[in-house]
Amino acid sequence: xxxxxxxxxxxxxxxxxxxxxxxxxxxxxxxxxxxxxxxxxxxxxxxxxxxxxxxxxxxxxxxxxxxxxxxxxxxxxxxxxxxxxxxxxxxxxxxxxxxxxxxxxxxxxxxxxxxxxxxxxxxxxxxxxxxxxxxxxxxxxxxxxxxxxxxxxxxxxxxxxxxxxxxxxxxxxxxxxxxxxxxxxxxxxxxxxxxxxxxxxxxxxxxxxxxxxxxxxxxxxxxxxxxxxxxxxxxxxxxxxxxxxxxxxxxxxxxxxxxxxxxxxxxxxxxxxxxxxxxxxxxxxxxxxxxxxxxxxxxxxxxxx
Amino acid sequence: xxxxxxxxxxxxxxxxxxxxxxxxxxxxxxxxxxxxxxxxxxxxxxxxxxxxxxxxxxxxxxxxxxxxxxxxxxxxxxxxxxxxxxxxxxxxxxxxxxxxxxxxxxxxxxxxxxxxxxxxxxxxxxxxxxxxxxxxxxxxxxxxxxxxxxxxxxxxxxxxxxxxxxxxxxxxxxxxxxxxxxxxxxxxxxxxxxxxxxxxxxxxxxxxxxxxxxxxxxxxxxxxxxxxxxxxxxxxxxxxxxxxxxxxxxxxxxx
Lengths: 305, 255
Ligand code: SF4
Ligand code: SF4
Ligand code: SF4
Prior knowledge:
The structure holds 2 protein chains of 2 kinds.
Chain A: H1 5-25, H2 34-55, H3 75-100, H4 105-127, H5 139-163, H6 167-193, H7 201-205, E1 212-217, H8 225-230, H9 236-264, H10 266-293
Helix pairs in contact in A: 1-2, 1-4, 1-5, 1-10, 2-3, 2-5, 3-4, 4-5, 5-6, 5-10, 6-9, 9-10
Chain B: E1 13-18, H1 27-37, E2 46-47, E3 55-56, E4 60-68, E5 82-89, H2 97-100, E6 107-109, E7 116-118, H3 128-132, E8 138-141, E9 146-149, H4 154-157, H5 170-174, E10 180-184, H6 191-199, E11 215-217, H7 229-234, H8 243-254
The complex binds iron/sulfur cluster (SF4) (3 copies).
Keywords (chain B): 4Fe-4S, Iron, Iron-sulfur, Metal-binding
Organism (chain B): Aminobacter anthyllidis
Pfam families (chain B): Fer4_11 (PF13247)
């Protein structure tokens, strides 16, 4: 699948935003501190930015409101509805944190749960497509949820180190979730790389009983919408290298930096935590790029790819 | 509404495509584009139409495959490789994932005859339905920003202003080899249903769980090359010639 920049940006940003908002909703941090107020605003900004960038790839964005209507059948519609509904508790929480410096447990917890549901809906858009076997697994939403949670905890850790309260707990939780998330992703990659293709040129043409089917001539010389959108191919060896790089930068580096922050404490902790969050975000972008680039669409059985 | 019709539709209008007959001329591709660019919904645009990077929206495309039997790489050993031209347009699936994924209700399946259509005034051009279709039957029109797909020529098949003979899809009407057939696959007595029963018509990628309405008729078993070799030898051998050819043979021998 073609790794469209707007979609990569959307899933990464909104994932981090929802993760951070969910962690804030749990009330682990002191809502009266400046850094937590900023974190609330930052989470909202990331979510809104992600949603806006996701409308960039639409052919007719002026009708985007229509996407809220088919929640009965469509995960994309469910995601849209949830994204908007989730704004309500998040706005209330943000208001109370920023203006009154207070944490509202009930609203906060509702917000956290709704953040989780929204991320789940995003992941299910991909996981529900049978035509893209790489995504068509329960591991896909699991990874999305874990990555969002780990990212949220990492960002919250930065805030906690800045404000100086609750930092150790946050950092340890972040450390555990970063590790668990990449372990889950590793399982996802293992599944992908040992996959027996569900559909083949033989099943796509129904000519398998005659023999081995090979594309002889494409319907057209140049690319079309389908080959541009779905014909993206990344060399296996590069994919393998990139996935290792993602684990290294997005998993190992943040864990090491978090450990440094926990043990060093004091002034050194803040830059270490910030660096950990940045590394993680970078690793996540690589992971998302691969999520698309490595996924083979069944239609490629008709295009010899 | 992008939920699928709850009952099986009373009619299942669709195509039956005969892979034994298709000669890969692409006439149906052109006639489909011609009819549909002026018909249902936005025109089918082309990008860079006169340049080197020409590409455009089509609702029907012909792929060509080479099928090689086991050991068929060596001529005469185990059958030979054969070429199969393969027309492909929307299969109007019964469990159409392209319908249920649509967030706007633009993509729908008609309850009365099972035709899968896009209401372009609702489509936001998100492209998710094209992702969900394993068959590559949907293409986004880059000029209009809406999803295009085979309409089964819904604006022909019910069109009483056309002569009765023309009330079939454009591709069916055009095919010079008669490789495309249109009809109601829910009616076991229809011509298309009988064809499917006789020739063993099959579904594409049944493992995708989409239950396509369109069916494909397999290429008939082919006479091996060796069996035709006799006639090739005849040109060198004039023993059996009669009448005019015997006279010609004799004359030519004498020259
Ligand atoms: S062939 Fe593709 S576009 Fe047509 S109904 Fe089936 S899934 Fe939908
Ligand atoms: S591209 Fe249009 S028809 Fe397809 S899923 Fe999106 S809104 Fe629906
Ligand atoms: S039925 Fe009509 S729209 Fe569909 S492929 Fe044939 S000509 Fe094109």
